[in-house]
Amino acid sequence: MITAVTRAARRWRTALPALDRWRAVRSTLAFGACLTVVTAVAGIHYGVFAAIGCYVDAYGTRDPFPRRGPVLALLCAGLVLAFAAGSLAAGDVWAMTAVLAVVAAAATLFVHTLRLSGPGSYFVVLVSALAAFLPPVSLTETAARAGFVAVGASVSWLSAMSGRLVRPYAPEERSVSAALRSVAAFTAGVGQPRGDTSAAQRSACTAVHAAWAALDDTRGRAAPALRRQELDALMVRLETVLDAVQNAAERGGPPVPAAWAPGLREAAAEVRAGRTPGSWPAGPGEEGAPSPGGTAACSPPSPPSSSRPRPRPSHAPRPAPLPPRRSIGAELRQALSSTSPAPTIALRVGLAVAVATVLGWALPLLHPAWVAVGAAASLQGGPGRQPSQRAGARFVGTVAGVAVTVLLAQVYQPGEWATVIMVFHGVSRALPPSALLLRTLLNTPVALLLVNAVFPGPGLGPLAAYRLLDLTLGMCLGMAAALLVRGVPRRRVCAAVSAAVGATGPALAIRLRTGTPHAASGGTAWRRTGDLWTMHASVPAEEIRSTDTADRLWPALLAVRRLLAWNLLAGPAAPAPADGARVGGFLHALAEAARTDLPGSARIGSALSHSPRTPFPAHDPDLHRRLTALRSALEHAALPSPGTKPPADGG
Q1: Per-residue CA distances from 640 to 240, 435, 504 (Å)
Q2: Nearest 5 degrees, angle CA 163-CA 166-CA 170?
Q3: Is 244 helix (H, G, I), strand (E, B) or coil?
Q4: pLDDT, tens digit, for every residue of 298-324?
Q5: What does 256-297 look like in DSSP terms, one character per residue?
Q6: Pairwise CA distance, residues 283 & 239, whole Å
Q7: Could you give the C-alpha distances from 357 to 38, 133, 270, 372, in angstroms and in order?
Q8: Contact 54, 31 (CB under 8 A)
Q9: CA dist 636 to 88, 423, 616, Å?
Q10: Do the Cβ atoms of 243 and 92 come closer than 8 Å?
């Protein structure tokens, strides 16, 4: 009996989302300090404005500190400007509509392009809409309110950056540790009878991509710190292991050594704890391991030993990993390119907010700002979820939050201090982004108590009822906007595929012609592949109805990444100018074909029928196999079956 209860408790704990307790403590302290101090000094109204500024703490929690600092600072400035613009437009419906639409579109473009972790542009729209639907005030009062919003945003910025004093490399270490765990899970599944490793492979590649992005976000002009160099070296070695495991999975050969998976899990625990692993699975190119094109007969990891030296980072020039570092200005310019999904997403959010603003003004609603907020809410947040799923989760969470607030009002009438909102606020920040329903449930009482503190007239009961009505209306408008502006245009998806394939051609051509990788062309190829990765992640999250677009993109994305991994990991070889020219021309033809339609379509198949035969580099048959996989991914939206032998004619 005790054993059964223990097992049930373990399953229950596993089902619960992981809590970030330290973040909850930081958020609660920052939120409570702003509300308490400003209320004591200037009154509850200004205390609420300072608390609104604390919404900045919803962003940037997974970003490394070197990137988190400047990007969050820009977000703080944008939040204050959005509040001031909304306040200045108050009282004029058309000015409010224009301001809120521009704020929603600009904030969506900013957050999406800079890959800032958090709930999208939701809180920026919330702050601007709250200011716009308040009664008009003088310019002096607007400046005072915006100043207190800036106080709250500044405190939240300091709170978000406080972890740098304790563990300055913690975000990168978490990302690298997650990559190690995902590759370990993929490794454990390869070669198992009746085992489908496609999901584990996708998870491993996604985690490795996220780890590279986290490391590259820390790069600056100065030489990286020793710890970041160690993490970079670990990721290069992890790439060799991942490449060997993928070779084994694609060829359907024998499983990789059984000791690899536990060795990688042990390494993940070491990195998570801030240490460098003492043992490592021998990957391709290392002692006792095959080359990148070999089989999976790699030697098992050595037993842990405290006397083993740490892996030394390589200082030799090599192509930039995925994706290479770009300035914030360059990333914002990339948002307007033909390969970016951001403009369509921003247009849809701006359109929904504009219509919601007009309706909120025209209808007899108690708190019309929530209509605009609801429209933005249904199209923001919830990573990997479609708008309909996000709207459903937010609706259920709002209903539950309203019920909790009404029940709370029966036993507790919050006064001016309403300290209970600090508890709700901190707990909601501890939840992961995937727990959208629970986050909404906990955030709803916070919003109601804050508004009730500023407008104590109607009481919590009517305010909660109107919250549910207004937010539901706004989410319906968001769904309507999602139907009118359908996801990401196909031409942008095709352009991203074509750009990634086209940039890979010069990188491989120079690699074959010279025998060594070229940093500039390789970095460009990784950057274009990173853009394709962003497109692949954005497409399913912006579709009102499920399509197979993301699934059709995945084989091409994986095939391009496999080519770039070969370019990065393969050892020096004799120059082969003729092979370089053939490979470059072949990939250029594939890139032109990819521009015509999505992978697997009849149009792209027709275009590929006129492309050159797949080159067969004499010195590396493995490259031919990877080129064949890319062609198959574009033509059939699928990779060749495991164990498939290349055609004898090289076609």
Answers
A1: 22, 37, 20
A2: 65
A3: helix
A4: 333 332 333 333 333 333 333 444 444
A5: PPTTHHHHHHHHHHHHHTT---S-----TTSTT---TTS-S-
A6: 9
A7: 30, 9, 51, 5
A8: yes
A9: 55, 53, 21
A10: no
In whole angstroms, what separates CA 158 from the centre of its chain? 23
For 415-539, list the strands marked E by DSSP: none
Helix ranges (H only) for 542-641 are 549-569, 577-594, 602-608, 621-636
Q: How far apart are CA 2 and CA 8, in angstroms?
A: 10
Can you tell me which residue has the tokens 């000094």? 41
Tell the burial category of 460 from Cβ atoms under 10 Å away from its Cβ (0-12, 13-18, 19+): buried
Report which of residues 409 and 355 the model is more confident about: 355
Residue identified by tokens 């790439």 is 239
Contact 69, 328 (CB under 8 A): no
CA distance 244 to 420: 54
Q: Cβ distance 369 to 128 under 8 Å?
A: no
Average pLDDT, the chain: 82
What is the chain's Cα-based Rg? Answer: 27
Report the alpha-carbon distance of residue 541 to residue 560 in Å, rounded.
Answer: 23
Residue 337 DSSP label: S
Q: Sign of dihedral through CA atoms 557, 378, 156, 328?
A: positive
> Which single residue is written with the structure tokens 């209808």?
363
The rounded distance, in Å, linking the Cα atoms of 125 and 105 is 9
- Measured CA to CA, the distance from residue 607 to residue 508 in angstroms comes to 22
Q: Report residue 73 as tokens.
A: 């600072």
- 42-52 as b/e, with b when 16 or more CB fall inside 10 Å? eebebbbbbbb
pLDDT band for position 13 (cuts 50, 70, 90)? very low
Give the span between the Cα atoms of 280 and 370, in whole angstroms: 53
Q: Are 230 and 310 in contact (CB under 8 A)?
A: yes
d(CA 47, CA 39): 4
- Stretch among 97-106, 412-421, 493-502, 567-576 having the lowest mean pLDDT: 412-421
Residue 334 exposed, middle or buried by CB count within 10 Å (0-12, 13-18, 19+): middle
Tokens 């700002």 correspond to 369
Handedness of CA 503, 509, 512, 516 (dihedral sign): negative
Q: At what angle do helices 198-216 and 549-569 cross, to 10 degrees?
A: 60
Tell me which amino acid residue 134 is: L
Q: At residue 427, what is the residue type? A: V
**Is residue 260 within 8 Å of residue 299, measured between CB atoms?**
no
Model confidence pLDDT, tens digit, residues 26-72: 888 898 888 889 988 998 889 889 999 999 998 988 899 988 999 99
Question: In this structure, which amino acid lies at residue 519?
Answer: A
Residue corresponding to tokens 């200037």: 42
* Structure-block tokens of residue 74: 């820009």
Closest CA to 583 of 607, 608, 556, 612: 612
Neighbour tally for 499: CB within 10 Å: 24
Residue 594 backbone dihedrals phi, psi, to 5 degrees: -65, -20
